[in-house]
Write a structure and sequence with these properties.
Rossmann fold, 21% strand
């Protein structure tokens, strides 16, 4: 994405004093044993298959130059009750997983799904997605 062009357009269409907000969510948290499996999958197995812009999500958009007076934002999180099947279903939705499948002809989730099931156990677990945000005031 061409950030300069994007923010010029935001300034053009935004009213003076309006708020600009961009948010996203980071890598989920469950418990240390499962988190370690997910992180290894995220970084080592499908890591090379993430789009190059993924680093912006990993650093909470901190490297994107925000040409507005930035405001502090509180931390937020989304919480869900998931089974191990929900977790592996979510992993299938990752773009890096789809890129891996296209490149290698096999699904990388198969590499860790049994480990996730074993670490998960029976029933539901609380899954937390940290939410990050950058907010600024448009000044003309």
């Amino acid at each position: 994405m061409d950030h300069k062009h994007f923010f010029n357009e935001v300034k053009r269409v935004g009213k003076n004093g309006a708020l600009f907000a961009a948010w996203g969510y980071g890598l989920l948290n469950i418990d240390p044993a499962i988190d370690q499996l997910i992180y290894k999958f995220y970084k080592d197995i499908v890591g090379p298959y993430w789009d190059k812009e993924r680093h912006h999500v990993d650093n909470n958009y901190a490297e994107i130059p925000l040409p507005f007076e930035e405001l502090p934002c509180p931390g937020f999180a989304m919480h869900y009750s998931w089974t191990a099947e929900h977790m592996t279903g979510y992993l299938h939705s990752w773009s890096a997983v789809q890129h891996y499948i296209k490149d290698k002809g096999r699904n990388p989730v198969d590499i860790i799904k049994d480990d996730i099931k074993n670490a998960w156990g029976d029933g539901d677990r609380l899954v937390t997605f940290p939410i990050f945000m950058r907010v600024g005031i448009i000044k003309k």
